[in-house]
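Ticket #4471: complex job returned nothing on first submit. Input attached below:
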Amino acid sequence: MKEHVVLHKNDFVTGDSFLRKALIRFSRHRLAVFGLIMLLCIIAGSVFYPMKNQNIAFDLNFLAISQKPNAGHWLGTDELGRDVFMRLLLGGRVSLSVGFVSVIFSTCIGILLGGIAGYFGGKTDMIIMRFTDTVMCFPFLIIAMILVVILGPSLWNSMLAIAMLNWTSTARITRGEILYLRERQFIEADRCLGIRDSKILFSHILPNALSPIIVNATFNIANAIMTEASLSFLGLGVPLPTPSWGNILQDSSSLYKLQTMPWIWIPAGLMIALTVLSINFIGDGLRDALDPKMNL
Amino acid sequence: MRNDMRTLVEIDNLHVHFPVTQGIIFKKKINEVKAVDGVSFSIRQGETMGLVGESGCGKTTTGRAILRLLDITDGTITFDGTDISKLSKKEMLPMRLRMQMIFQDPYASLNPRQSVIDIISDPLLAHRLIDRSERKDRVSDLMSMVGLDPRFMNRFPHEFSGGQRQRIGIARSLALNPEFIVCDEPIAALDVSIQAQIINLLQDLQEKIGLTYLFIAHDLSVVRHISDRIAVMYLGVIVEIAKKSALFSNPLHPYTKILLSAVPKPDPKTERQRKRIMLKGEIPSPLHKPKGCPFSTRCPYALPRCKDELPLLRTFDDDHQVACHLIKES
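Support reply: We reran it on our side without changes. The output follows.
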């Protein structure tokens, strides 16, 4: 008796690599592509637009105080006469880099600790997870403040503080996934075949645990952007007058500004929401693209 | 079967106990599950040893312990003259080239995120048996050896049927060119039509490259088809080992007799005349084993002695070993 293989239209019998298939899957995910384009626009805008004429974001201009959006100032000016649009784009540089860099750091820490805890189990697991619980128990903002106070307020130090406190959820998720995966038969097969522990953990178990980690990372980016905003508000984030989306928002938290000058805070809020949304879409698309079981 | 063949694997008084603990930080051992409780047998080179028993009797645990996938509580495992029961993980690596396993569930034993070429070549690369450049050729060879089209090497496991997946698993085990393979119910999860194909494939491979199998199964007809000798397990111990023909024509242990009487006959006339010995009760929990013969609680012929004294495996005529007080030497 011969077994038959069902060939369908988009079948790759040979040739196409996993990466190419993943790329095709990603490009078919409309929301993810939309999110990617949106995010690229935001990044390009904040990187390239402020390259010239940056001064209007910092210089006080008493001839143009609290202007509504107009042809000269697309999003108007604030109470010191600074151009809101330029501040918004400059703020994007800070917020995006804090979001991405701190999440890359925290995800790496989380995967490493969670992975080791889950894979080796026993005492290792016990020690690492209790440490994770301890870090989780700290009041986030207070510890972040203390860290920044010790290290001094700057962009890098707030990234570091956020990364050092944000990895716990990733660690827990990774550990949980790995606890389940390491008992699977294909991992036992790997052990039987004599494959190294590090190889089993990082190239056989982790790829299977990736989807929740990716989704969690996208949430963490949003979180990091908001935390940076809080730190900035307390004067511990990026020092003024450098703008970030967070400190623009916090700066306009007075009732007067909220009621009469919406052109200052609505764009900043929108940018955070849009960025987080597009990152979430991308995460969703990535998860599907990296899963070989998804159809093309 | 020749009796003069070299012994390849020798298992002597193997114990695998799993502790039952209480408490979270300070774990206190309150009991243990004696999954394998003093198993001894040997496998000769080139033969197929069948290992049967009902579920939970410890046959899979035995198979996994032989490959050192589980911690052994006591006993020795000698592979080709080397005692492997106390080797460290590192010392075990060269032995892994020589002994492999085929797993029960082809749906769970292949990594869903790896393509076939990676699945089959990973062990080869891990042991540095090939260069990356030779990967394709070697995987093609292995795939054709197990009857798979090498053109499908870039596919993922979910794109294959159960039988094809089991073939991938077999190719992976064969990659390291082992001498001994533990087949842990390799066909239990497959359709009947596919079961025959896989069995035939295993037999062909045995002929072609001279493999030695430990074939674990609960399906007696399959074991009868493939094995040279058969060991019957019950509750962590072996109750009878015999050549296939001797076991089926002249079962000595009451448990084997009952087991064989449960196999339906394909002919309705003889099936109607088949006398079934019904087994009363359930298999005792391995947590609270009977003191004497493990089968004494359900054995229709049990004597008072059976309840107190554990019968040991004794050899009877022509390589037939039984652990039962009732059997008298002929």
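Chain B has eleven helices and twelve strands. Closing as resolved unless it happens again.
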